[in-house]
Amino acid sequence: HVTGVQTCCSSDLATPAPAATGALPAAALKYLGGYQDELIARAAPALLAGRVLPALAQRYPEPNPARDDRALFAFVNDMKQRGLRNAPPLALVAYDSKIKLLQHALGTHTRISRNHGGQLKARREIRVASLFKDTPAAFLEMIVAHELAHLKEPEHDKAFYGLCCHLLPEYHQREFDLRLWLAAEALGERA
After folding, report:
1. H or E segment and range at residue 22
2. Residue 109 and residue 7 in contact, taking contact as beta carbons nearer than 8 Å
3. How far is residue 188 CA from its own chain's centroid?
4. How far, in Å, CA of 70 to CA of 165, rounded?
5. Which one, out of 52, 79, 80, 168, has a CA that is 20 to 30 A from the CA of 147?
6. Does residue 170 sit in helix, strand or coil?
7. Widest pairwise Cα distance in the chain
8. Does residue 157 surpass a pLDDT of 90?
9. What is the pTM of this model?
């Protein structure tokens, strides 16, 4: 019997930046929503010229080591043990092809509470968008840090982002670089 389900989608991609960001198509802008216009304006020439993916491939040359669900589970648990030893255990960690960028999510953290024999049992799951199988390891680390932070902090607030930075000191830079990578792919750029 399921008594409650709480899901969080990481990396909300919903809010596009204002039109003052230049000639970037909406397909690219949707990934950069929330960033300052000046920052987007600085990135726009590289995006329009097709230079973003080669630059990111040079910056993050290490390929994703977790190509299947079993390897992803080990990857997530290793990162959890390094940064969140006292966090509750995870019942499931998997790639999910149903997570679409159109749903404004790159990963999800789900808590399911079940009534079992008069006791409330919690089950925690992390699902990562399948597109991360083909990204550099640095981007997978960023999304995993985000989802692991939800084990302790449910809301996207100062404490949450502080925990993300504890798990991955370069969290904010990697999130921006991932959004640039997604924007470049949306524009049809190839590495």
Report:
1. none
2. yes
3. 21
4. 26
5. 52
6. coil
7. 61
8. yes
9. 0.80
